[in-house]
Every structure is written in C-alpha cells, then in structure tokens.
Design a protein that fits this description.
This protein has about 350 residues and is mainly alpha-helical. It has 2 domains: about 1-60 and about 310-340, no CATH class; about 60-160 and about 170-265, Multidrug efflux transporter AcrB transmembrane fold (Up-down Bundle), CATH 1.20.1640. About 65% of the residues lie in helices and about 0% in strands. It has a two-stranded antiparallel sheet. A hairpin with a 5-residue loop joins strand 1 and strand 2. The protein is elongated, with a radius of gyration of 30 Å. About 20% of the residues are buried.
Amino acid sequence: MTRKDEDGQVEQLGEVVSGIVLKRMGANTKATIDGIEARIDRINQALPSGVRFEPYYNQADLVTKAVETVTNALLLAFVFIAIVLALFLMNLRATTLVLLSIPISIGIALMIMAWFGLSANLMSLGGIAVAIGMLVDGSVVMVENMFKHLTHPDAEHDAHRDELVKNDPDPLDASHDDHGIALRLQEAGREVARPIFFATAIILVVFMPLFSFEGVEAKLFQPMAISIMLAIVSAVIVALVVVPALASFMFRKGIRERESFILKPLEKLYRKGLDWSLNHTRSVVGAAAVLVVLAALVVPRLGTEFVPELEEGTINLRVTLAPSSSLIRRLKLRQNWKRC
C-alpha cells in the first residue's frame, strides 16, 4: 500500500493488513473516532516490533468541517440579521433587544436537546441555521408594537399639549410618562401575543409530517425537524416573556422614533403597488392563477435526488484485479498508480 504525504510525495507502507472499524447503531461518529485515536498509542505498545497501528482514513475531518460550515453560517446569518434590523428599526436598543432573542432561543433549544440526549449533529445544527430567521419574527412584531405604543400620545399629556410644546420639541414622547411606560409595554404585549402564538403554531404544524418518516428518511430529517421546532418554541417563549421584561429596562426612559431612510421609499412603493392591486383585483388574481399553473407544470421537470453528491475532499482509491493476474502485471500497474 502507498499513500501521498502533504508534500505530494509517495510513501511506501510495505505490507499492510487493512481493516474497518464499525460503530454501533445510534453511536456518535465523532465520539467513536476520538475514542479510537485516544487508544492508538496503547494499541501500538501491545503490537510486536516493526508492526504499528495507523489510521489512513476516517470521517472525523468531514464531520468537523461540516459542523464548522454550519456554525459559520449561523454566525453570518446573525450578522446579516443585525444589519437588517439596525437599518429598519433605526434604534440601537430595539436592535439589541431583538438580537438577544437569537442566542437565548438557541441556548434553550440546545439545553432541551441535551436533556433528551439529542446530539448537535449536522442536521440539527442545519435546522437551527434554517430557522434562525424565523427566531426573530415574534420579537420583531413585539418590539414594533411596543414602538407604536411608546410613541403614541397618552391621554394625560395629549390634553396638555400646548403647555408642553413650549419647552420640548417632542412633547408627546413616552419619556414624559413616568408612570405609564410599563403599562404601555404590557398592553403592547397583550395585543400581539395571540397572533404571535398562532402564527408559530402554524409553522410547527408544517413540520409534523416529518415525524411519520421511517428508516433513512427519519435519520436524515427528524433531527432537523426537532431542532427547528424546539428553537421556534423557545423563540416564542422569549418573544412573549423575555422581550417584554427586558424592554421594561431598556425602554425605561422612553424612545424616539426615527424614520428609516430605507423603509421610507419601500413604503411609498408598497402603497402605490397596493393601490394598483386593489383597483385591478381581476388582473392580480388572474396573474396569481397563471403562476400556480406554471409552477405545477414545471415541478415534474425539476428532477429528484434522494441525497446530493457528497464531496468529502478525500480520495480513497482501491483497485481489485482478477485472481488470474500475474505478479509482473500487478507490479507494473502499481508503478503506474504511484505516478498518478
């Protein structure tokens, strides 16, 4: 057996007896490989002189790289979400409040998974990466409604608008209301609690059919479904309980709404599009029906594939010759393989 080192040089291993280590059903691949590598020195000490035990291929690198890729995707998604929220909310405290819901939700989901003995594998982490955008939905709705209540004039100060406006450019800001901010936040939470809960319930119902899978399909998709559902449920709890509690501290001095330079033109464009669609309802419904029909015609032509081709980055070449092959033939082919 021969192999190439990191410099591309062919290394002759001599006579080799190869074997395959099989893990138990349900065992963790990375933990199994780490356990074997931890015992290599002890195995070599027990072998005769000139004989050594050496792994030449394992899937630990594949597992590590895959997990790192998903982790980097999570971090990159977190950065993008932070940028989008900052540009649309135009408030540092509100952006921070919404972003806090992401690590808290993921942390709660991972703790529940650890409690039930579920590993953070490629599919479960991939599920969290897919759901990271949905984790902030409830918190965004909650914070947006809090903005609405905190920037709306209360009855007491609205009655004395003329007196306040002399000394303050923004007399109706919630910072003047020393005793009512907590009540406003409470009322804002009550208004959107039901829509947030039922919207999340609909999303959870979509993933329920995945638990009817069996065999290989269950191994592939159920960990992803479990992680997504746990993360979304955790995000709802955070949005309904944690976010209002944190808002009572972060918005204690009230807030001042700033108009987003990105949202303003988008809102104008949306209003124009909404007016046009309301005035041309038949055209909109007809176009939607045509798109549905076209989608139904295209679906059969997309093609299907159970699992996409996996590029591990490792080449393990094994050639089997006919039993009748001569030794000279084998040695000649061996020299050709070395040059390759």
